[in-house]
Amino acid sequence: DGGITQSPKYLFRKEGQNVTLSCEQNLNHDAMYWYRQDPGQGLRLIYYSQIVNDFQKGDIAEGYSVSREKKESFPLTVTSAQKNPTAFYLCASRPGQGRSPLHFGNGTRLTVT
Amino acid sequence: AQSVTQLDSQVPVFEEAPVELRCNYSSSVSVYLFWYVQYPNQGLQLLLKYLSGSTLVKGINGFEAEFNKSQTSFHLRKPSVHISDTAEYFCAANTGGFKTIFGAGTRLFVKA
Lengths: 113, 112
Hints:
The structure holds 2 protein chains of 2 kinds.
Chain A: E1 4-7, E2 10-13, E3 19-25, E4 31-37, E5 43-51, E6 54-57, E7 64-66, E8 76-78, E9 87-94, E10 103-104, E11 108-112
Parallel strand pairs in A: 2-11
Antiparallel strand pairs in A: 1-3, 3-8, 4-5, 4-9, 5-6, 7-8, 9-10, 9-11
Chain B: E1 3-6, E2 10-14, E3 19-21, E4 23-26, E5 32-38, E6 44-50, E7 56-58, E8 64-68, E9 73-78, E10 87-94, E11 101-102, E12 106-111
Parallel strand pairs in B: 2-12
Antiparallel strand pairs in B: 1-4, 3-9, 5-6, 5-10, 7-8, 8-9, 10-11, 10-12
């Protein structure tokens, strides 16, 4: 079955360490997205990529970085510059623009202490 | 600027009762609207979408929503809820570009 795989499901890190969250899709979608979810705040866009080797900052990109070297992969690095990194991170993809709904992975819960 | 407002953060309801989850959007241009459901520690799943045409949209699990352009609303309804409908529901809007705006979510609690 086609879908989006995020790994790991749970991730624990010490403050000051960079950490990379994996996102892989086999849906052949061009666009991929990273969202951050905090209780009561909905989903906030971190970064998105419309095509390989291209990506744009979302609304809360500070302290995060991404790469898009392959169509199926869009890893997110949470750097030590991110002030409050503990959150639930969701990766999504879709074929093109607005009319297409987003397809989501099952998320990675990151805890930084 | 485009925004999505979900008017209730939590909605408790008894099993087999009807429910309405409210969503209002602001947009000066045509908009595509979506409802997603999220079960604990999982990603979001699409319930239904409004792209154009009929204003009453039917989705999975017996849910439906009505697009009201004059009131800029897209409320989600189900005539009879089940315990298994307990989840968080997100309304989302897109004006045709790459960015989708989400509401803050509504937690639906279905009580026996």
